[in-house]
Amino acid sequence: QLRLVESGGGLSQPGGSLRLSCKASGVTLDDYAVGWFRQAPGKEREGVSCITITHTFSGENTDYAASVKGRFTISRDNAKNTVYLQMHSLKPEDTAVYYCAALFSTPTQEQCVMSVIGEFGSWGQGTQVTVSS
């Protein structure tokens, strides 16, 4: 049974960096497309980034929300059964609880879709990221 645990959140000054981890147990995470999502107080949950399995017909692919493109990088470490979200140039508006979700995928699914992962995937418990001076 898939279980996801996020970690790495904390307090950062504006312009700082944090790396979030999403570690899976019970399954091989590289059989799952993974998405990172966030929810700020009083706001709806939004997709941040997603990553396909490494063995799609076109290899591994990623996608990013426009608000984080160029600042955040999603990646996998299959040896650790973990997906990371490296966050640079953090802004106060990045403050939120960050969640990862995973959805079983196949090699034919060459692109990840955050909304699909969010609707049908399994979720972790979240980790708080606060960006403030």
Written account of the structure:
With 133 residues, the chain is mainly beta. The protein has one helix spanning 114-120; strands at 3-7, 10-12, 18-25, 32-39, 46-51, 62-64, 72-77, 82-87, 96-104, 122-123, 127-131. Strands 2, 4, 5, 6, 9, 10 and 11 form a seven-stranded mixed β-sheet that branches. A four-stranded antiparallel β-sheet has the order 1-3-8-7, with no helix packed on it. The mean pLDDT is 97.
Mean pLDDT: 97
Shape label: globular
Separate helix tally: 1
- Largest sheet features: 7 strands, mixed
- Enumerate the spans where pLDDT stays under 50 for 5 or more consecutive residues: none
Q: Report the radius of gyration as a whole number of Å.
A: 14 Å
N- to C-terminal distance: 40 Å
Q: What is the chain-wise order of helices and strands?
A: EEEEEEEEEHEE
Classification by helices and strands: mainly beta
Percentage of β-strand residues: over 45%
* β-strand number: 11
Estimate the helix proportion, in percent.
Answer: under 10%
Summarize it.
By secondary structure, the chain is mainly beta. It is 5% helix and 46% strand.
